[in-house]
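re: ur msg from earlier - yeah i can do the 6-phosphogluconic acid complex, just paste it... oh wait u already did. ok heres what im feeding in:
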Amino acid sequence: MSAPADLRRLTTPQDLFQAAAEEVLRGAADAIAQRGRFAIALSGGSTPKNLYTLIAANASASLPWDRMFFFWGDERHVPPDDPDSNYRMAKETLLSKIPIPPANIFPILAENPDASAAAAAYEQTLRKFFVLAPGEFPRFDLILLGLGPDGHTASLFPETAALQEKSRLVVANWVEKLKTSRITFTLPVLNAARCIAFLVSGIDKAEVLHEALEGNSSGEKYPSKLVQPSDGQVIWFVDRAAASELSTAG
Ligand code: 6PG
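and the outut:
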């Protein structure tokens, strides 16, 4: 498998987060200039924490925050104040530090004990915001994604049911190895995006990044391989440690 079209190799994690922050703010400026708004889906886990912190630290109050709209590509099945909540992490590192109108923030209501109901509710949130016709998918300006050690992205884990979903926008996905449901965008939503940005940092991601970008395993085993927007850009922001097992020179 050849290197992706846009593999951005940075040296240190800080360089990676700086480059990603610049891309987020550039994408926001473009989207707002061209379409009047910027719709972004945040990723969870630990990698994006530093990105969100950096954006909050550098983002000036003069930015058109009221034209930016924040969603999540996935969420753990926990309340918003849970330490594992992706919403909580983004609120603590970014959303509580920028002048974003609360109405512009769309958390997944994962406190609902019924994960399927939470997914269905979020799907309606997307349908309403993007004014979708039946069968239409939302076109996010930017979706941030991470890469799990097993190759998962968002909460699309290897060999889980959500990988087969072709019509729903958001589903509850049972992850046997975690013994929990996750709520996640489906592949059609990821693949409808204008831009996907993967953030992959650290030596513990070196093997999975090599597999994801250069291995011959199937997308069932490495779901990040199934992220192939039909009319959108995919950017991989990787640091030197994460890229250390890639064969491509650079
Ligand atoms: C989540 C994320 C998940 C994450 C990867 C990488 O809810 O955990 O959406 O897909 O991006 O697991 O996580 P780290 O950044 O913590 O390695």
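cool cool. The first helix runs from residue 13 to 35. ping me if u need the other ligands too
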